[in-house]
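Page 47, continued from p. 46.
Same chain as before, 269 aa.
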Amino acid sequence: MIKAKKKFGQNFLIDESVKSKIIQAMPNDSLPVVEIGPGLGDLTQKLLQSGKLVSAFEIDLELCVVLKRKFESEIASKQLTLVCSDVLEQWRGDSLLDQEYHLVANLPYYVATNIILKALSDPKCRSILVMVQKEVAKKFASQAGDKNFSGLAILANSIANVEVLFDVGSEAFDPPPKVTSAVLRMVKTREFVQNQRDGIFLDQDEFEEFKRFLKEAFKAPRKTLTKNLQNSYEKSLVLKFLDELDLSFSVRPHQLSIDLYHLLFDKLK
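Result:
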């Protein structure tokens, strides 16, 4: 019997109703699916049964042996491609696959944010459907004014429709985690960097600068936005921006809208 490994942050999803709800929440089209961390292959099996072409990335070599045996015929027919490697190692280029795809995953909590950001930046990834810690899901789906509004929400909501679909209790997993999970869905409407008409940024360097800008803006959420930005950007320009929009100089990072963050970045860059 395979036991979950703490070093990989494994918690196997065992609730059949939750698995079915995840499958039902996926886009109904012919694009292939990337599954990260297939584990024992239960969700993989449902994806294959629905007729999807699946590329599964599994870091645990012991689980890879189980998956190769379980899906021998699907691998032979090329309906399933099993990659026994760390997905982040495979993601060194701009895209994980050479064609458009949808991503689905029950993500280990310790790498969830990094993987979601990678997928958001991947121009071939059209949607993201992931099980994550509830607090992480809320951060990505939050809106301006929410206390947990952050740079993660700005990045996600700038290019995608983001929603928390439902919570999943610890009893749905083996072993049960100590936190509540949630299923998060992001459907992209455009890209960060694509072209001047459809993209937000002109090039990758500008996008990376925007991420650094957001990191500075939210580095101390309880402090004012001006205080957070003044060490990296001209304070007078920040104050001028706030004054022109009739905003208080004591505005906190979570109080500024997504559109205003893009506008402020344009003023400061």
